Amino acid sequence: MKRPHVTVNCAMSADGKIALPTRAQMRISCDEDIKRMYRLRHQSDAVLVGVGTILTDDPKLTVKEQYVPHPKQPLRVVLDSKARTPAHAQVLNSVAKTLIITGSGKTKRFTGSHIEVVSCKTTKSGLLDLHQVVDLLWQRGVRSVLVEGGGTVIWECLHHQIVDDMYIYIGPYVIGGKHTPTVADGTGIKDEQHVIPLRLVTSKRLGPGVVLRYQPVR
Ligand SMILES: NC(=O)c1ccc[n+]([C@@H]2O[C@H](COP(=O)([O-])OP(=O)(O)OC[C@H]3O[C@@H](n4cnc5c(N)ncnc54)[C@H](OP(=O)(O)O)[C@@H]3O)[C@@H](O)[C@H]2O)c1
């Protein structure tokens, strides 16, 4: 089955955390990394997050002109099986198109022709079927997707083997906390034989941190 090229991008602390222990957003990226992230968004047909990120961070998910001249705004995609995206969420602003993917039978009306709500089947876990999600995006002409989080979505994408590339920026901080969100949350692997192997493609110093590019080994 054909599917878009899927890239994960995330910023974490030296101890693997991606937010504060309260789950509130923390700026881990340096200016250079923010610029790299906006360039990745600009190059992608779609940028995808889970509703958890919408509810905690309220991101716009657009490309800022100060970082990329004449930006191309990717389609913003939210995985939202229970239709929890608030009507006032910034991801619904009219700067770019937004696609909210809900579970079957769950829908919500939003104002504006730039917002579309479609449904897709859920798996036993109650989460959206990611193979159907990428198929649905492919059918809409999306050839590249940038997955920006959070930890549940990144884990599920890796677990379902739909990731082609993964960029991790490591900022020089320790955040700590047993329940602090990490790059890959979700259920995790059952035992060692289910580990997800990665190949380190590049590593580069960026500002005070480092950016690693990995590719899953299949
Ligand atoms: N540092 C960074 O780069 C970065 C980037 C983004 C976010 N974050 C942080 O990450 C945290 C949010 O992460 P999170 O894990 O709570 O939320 P999330 O991964 O953004 O969203 C997870 C939610 O998405 C919905 N979903 C539907 N289908 C799914 C599927 N197939 N796979 C995964 N999720 C699916 C589920 O909610 P329903 O059951 O309601 O559908 C699920 O609970 C925040 O603390 C935020 O600040 C950090």
Q: How would you explain this protein's 3D organization?
A:
The chain is α/β, with parallel strands linked by helices and 218 residues long. The protein has one domain (5-216): Dihydrofolate Reductase, subunit A (3-Layer(aba) Sandwich), CATH 3.40.430. The chain is built from 4 helices and 9 strands. It has a 9-stranded mixed beta sheet with strand order 5-4-3-2-6-1-7-9-8, sandwiched between helices. Strand 2, helix 2 (51-57) and strand 3 (75-79) form a beta-alpha-beta unit. The longest helix has 13 residues, at 31-43. The radius of gyration is 17 Å and the shape is globular. The model has no long low-confidence stretch (mean pLDDT 97). Residues 10-11, 18-19, 23, 25, 28, 49-53, 56-57, 79-82, 84, 126-128, 130, 148-153, 156, 181, 185 line the site of NADP nicotinamide-adenine-dinucleotide phosphate.
Which secondary-structure class do the elements indicate? alpha/beta
Mean pLDDT across all residues, rounded? 97
Number of helical stretches of at least 4 residues: 4
Low-confidence sequence ranges = none
- The sequence of SSEs as H and E is EHEHEEEHEHEEE
Radius of gyration: 17 Å
Oligomerization state: single chain
What characterizes the major β-sheet? 9 strands, mixed
Query: According to CATH, what is the class?
Result: Alpha Beta
Shape: globular
| CATH architectural type | 3-Layer(aba) Sandwich
Widest sheet: strand order?
A: 5-4-3-2-6-1-7-9-8
Helix percentage range: 10-25%
Query: How many structural domains in the coordinates?
Result: 1
